[in-house]
Design brief:
Two copies of one chain form a homodimer.
Chain A: H1 2-31, H2 37-40, H3 51-69, H4 84-98, E1 113-115, E2 122-125, H5 126-151, H6 158-162, E3 168-169
Antiparallel strand pairs in A: 1-2
Amino acid sequence: MTLVYAAIKEQKQMIVNLEAWLEKGVAHAKARSFDPVVLLNARLAPDQYPLVRQIQSVCDSAKFTAARLADKDPPKHPDTEQTLDEIRARIQTCKAYLDTFKPADFEGAEKRLVPVAFMPGKVLTGLDFLFELQLPNFFFHATTAYAILRHNGVDLGKTDYIGNLSVRDR
Amino acid sequence: MTLVYAAIKEQKQMIVNLEAWLEKGVAHAKARSFDPVVLLNARLAPDQYPLVRQIQSVCDSAKFTAARLADKDPPKHPDTEQTLDEIRARIQTCKAYLDTFKPADFEGAEKRLVPVAFMPGKVLTGLDFLFELQLPNFFFHATTAYAILRHNGVDLGKTDYIGNLSVRDR
């Protein structure tokens, strides 16, 4: 359960990082005198989600990881955010939800059978759900959000991506 | 140790997926009559690594995750690949190295103290090393490689990114 909780904790950290990338994007837009909503609608390919949807997907991915592995019903978030304040609020809602989980909620999570939403009748063990589906998907949307901002000239680097580390002295 | 090994197994799967994205890129280049090396040198921002370096980083990230958590000395790979065949060979070398690890190699890995290469004198527990640094970094480079190909018109979708899942019947 400690190991599964470590994944949830990392998702929370990455969402804190994502907030900082977004605010750097807003500052960049202000400095260049364009509406930050332009960034929310930016994408890397015409048939790929824009930034706002990448952020929604980061939030939903973290929400479903925690809920499914703790065997709880997640709240519904219909992905209607369009403005900066709406997407900021969505991020806060997600962080507050993740904060409701404790390590003990993930007791036995590795072996719990989790339904795969897009493959009716199929399940994954909690362990496979976490490593094969949720973490790749979570970091996919986080990295794509970061890449959209980088591609649009926002001053971001790897330390912004990684954020705080629980380092200690040797 | 099972949980840490699940992360290594996922890194192997993602590298198999990456090979398929690269070959889709090569097919795309052939269909459009351009040299696939153009894709290897493509990047999303002028000060970000091109595709070839993203692939090298995926390989190195997986290599260091396994080696550090198993307390082994990883082989050195100097990132000199420039051609398609060279980067294909690098991927094979990485896969073969990852195949040398067994679940038992990660006994006690969560609590092992791992030095942080870019922060002299600082360490992370194996658990934090895995979730806070290595997995975010690994998926960062994998997703960026994918995004460079997508941005250049290669026909990739989320199922290419995720690859095979260990699903079973409910």
